[in-house]
């Protein structure tokens, strides 16, 4: 595997993890939103990845973003202007603990790939310096 393949793979994975972190941030931002029906209520979005090769290096890219199938939580609040005929509003199906765990995982993956890219950059610089000193 070449240094370039490794750097490309690391930066591609960083882009995928950044997308995952942005998606989680959007879910957390909508944690406390409510709607007048389960269909209108915010559904947590989940990023799925696909493994690819860049040259000889393996990495991930975003395959797609899917909506969670977890049910939205009904809340009895007949005085809310969004309440349905039975007096219910519907909260998002975002689970705070799951989102925080996903955010931590995405951040750690991002940082690991950043460290790989930094190490490969330093290796490339060392290689160039070594070649120059041998000339």
General shape:
rod-shaped
Quaternary structure classification: single chain
The largest sheet has its strands arranged as 1-5-4
Which band does the percent of strand residues land in?
15-25%
Give average pLDDT, whole number.
95
Structural class: alpha+beta
Low-confidence stretches: none
The level of helicity is 40-55%
Biggest sheet character: 3 strands, antiparallel
Instruction: Find the count of extended strands (DSSP E, 2+ residues).
Output: 5
Euclidean distance between termini CA atoms: 25 Å
How do the SSEs run, as a string of H and E?
A: HEEEEEH
The radius of gyration over CA amounts to 22 Å
Alpha plus pi helix count: 2
Provide keyphrases for this structure:
single chain; 135 residues; alpha+beta; three-stranded antiparallel beta sheet; two-stranded antiparallel sheet; 2 helices; 5 strands; Flagellar basal-body rod protein FlgC; Flag_bb_rod_N; Flg_bb/hook_C_dom; bacterial flagellum; FlgC
Provide the fold topology:
Blueprint: H1 3-29, E1 34-35, E2 45-54, E3 57-67, E4 73-76, E5 88-91, H2 96-133
Helix pairs in contact: 1-2
Report on this model:
With 135 residues, the chain is of the alpha+beta class. Helices cover 48% and strands 23% of the residues. β2 (45-54) and β3 form a beta hairpin. The radius of gyration is 22 Å and the shape is rod-shaped. The mean pLDDT is 95. It is found in: Bacterial flagellum basal body. Belongs to the flagella basal body rod proteins family. Residues 7-34 form the Flagellar basal body rod protein N-terminal domain.
